[in-house]
Amino acid sequence: MKILTWFKPTADQLHIGNYLGAMKPLMNLATAHPHASINLFVASMHAYTYDSMHTPGAINANTLTFLKLFVASGADLSRYLIYDQWHIPEHTQLTRTLTCLSHMGMLERMHAYKDAVAKGKANEISVWVFLYPVLMAADILLYDATHIPVWQDQKQHVELARDLAIKVNNIYGDVCVIPEPIIGTEIGTIPWIDGRKMSKSHNNFLGLLDDEETLRSKIKKISTDMKTVDEPKDPDTCNVYAIIKHFLTSDEQENLTKRYRAWWLSYKELKDYAFETLWKTIKPIQDAYHAMDDSTILKVVHQGTEQAREYAQKKIRHINAAMGYHT
Q1: pTM, to two decimals
Q2: Total tally of structural domains belonging to the chain
Q3: Which CATH number fits the domain that encloses residue 134?
Q4: pLDDT value at position 299?
Q5: Closest by Cα among 47, 67, 37, 11 to 299
């Protein structure tokens, strides 16, 4: 079993939504599949579709931040083959081949393009945003990955990879492994002050690198309803509870829920409790992050990239030979 997954280094600061929705699932993946090999690649070429990532050095810096926080959160990097697609030209080489086998109709059904059309911005996106599902298919097929963990709304990218793999195999023989999706259970939206999804682009996030006072100040600003201290409250409609429930044990959740529905729980007390709960998780991560040597992480990525490229080169030679392009 070979699992392939990735992260997109588009942020210089990560928040608790990233921690819950990306880092912990990656760690759980290694635990759930102890005997599987796991490719974890830096989706640097995908990140470059964002205008904000055109600043020289931004992608490299963000990659380092993610991986250091990943390790600081408890990840064992030895369980993953970590590599940067930017430094493996075989990704774009296979993308070129797959693009020639793709139809406009296939790509026009992809979420990113459909969303741009719905917003009247189809003419504003880059060509690579339109083509990036083909790059994703190349990312998958280049390493003979058997299983791809995705959320439900990303399943169509695996389906495109499957369709292209079948098309290649029908023409040239059994060249590509046909991948299977592993559909993850999303944690749901992590809300913030205005109810929107927690996001760095909205500047409404609780950052893993926020200092103590910054975190406390942000938590104080979380909006709540107007119920007084002596009125029962509904945890299911409370933004504070929606955030901290992910950091509580089942017993702690049950006890807090009872306090919501009883009397004498003030929102000030609740926010103080939220700060204490989150800081108990974030502070050790920060300590480990700041104690980490950058060179250790960079060495892991460099060695992983060399190993991955060796595999990618062999795969491209195999595909080219099947196509009749012998070297």
Answers
A1: 0.88
A2: 2
A3: 3.40.50.620
A4: 96
A5: 67
